[in-house]
Write a structure and sequence with these properties.
Blueprint (H helix, E strand, L loop, with lengths): L1 H4 L1 H6 L12 E3 L11 E3 L2 E4 L2 H9 L3 H15 L4 H14 L10 H4 L2 H9 L13 H6 L3 H10 L5
Parallel strand pairs: 1-3
Antiparallel strand pairs: 2-3
Helix pairs in contact: 4-7
């Protein structure tokens, strides 16, 4: 129960995404499903273990870059965490039928996740400006996103 309630102060103290320079990682096992390593949450990164939190907090790697891309996406959503999460939920719900064809399809075909996964290993991606590629994926049909995911075409 305590882990569930830990998110309230994070939400309460949250600032606009544009005012977040770096996202510290904190441990919260309640909100992370098994197999997930980090979750961007109102300017913090929730992790399931202290070891992962330390990894996020001590260096800039692909995992940290993935979460920082979500920060930039929130900035591109009217600089609002609420709008980012509502859009995230909307795209996730629309992609739910893909779960029949693809394990975790609603998550993997979410335009925000598609951009973050596509560029997480490019540690210079965010230096070029905003993270707006998600808008291109959002215009695609679910079928087109599945095809793109299966082909794993870089930069498509």
């Amino acid at each position: 129960m305590w882990m569930m309630l830990q998110i309230i102060p994070i939400m309460w103290r949250a600032v606009r995404p544009s005012r977040v320079a770096d996202m510290p990682a904190v441990v919260n096992t309640f909100w992370l499903r098994k197999g997930f390593e980090g979750l961007t949450f109102f300017g913090k990164i929730l992790t399931p273990t202290q070891a992962l939190a330390d990894e996020f907090n001590t260096g800039f790697n692909a995992l940290k870059n993935h979460e920082m891309i979500h920060l930039r996406q929130a900035q591109s959503c009217g600089d609002s965490w609420v709008r980012f999460y509502l859009l995230y939920l909307w795209y996730w719900l629309r992609a739910l039928p893909a779960n029949r064809k693809l394990r975790h399809g609603a998550y993997l075909l979410n335009p925000f996740e598609m951009e973050a996964y596509r560029h997480m290993n490019d540690l210079h991606y965010l230096a070029d400006g905003e993270a707006n590629e998600w808008r291109k994926f959002a215009k695609m049909s679910i079928k087109e996103r599945i095809t793109l995911y299966e082909q794993k075409i870089p930069g498509a």
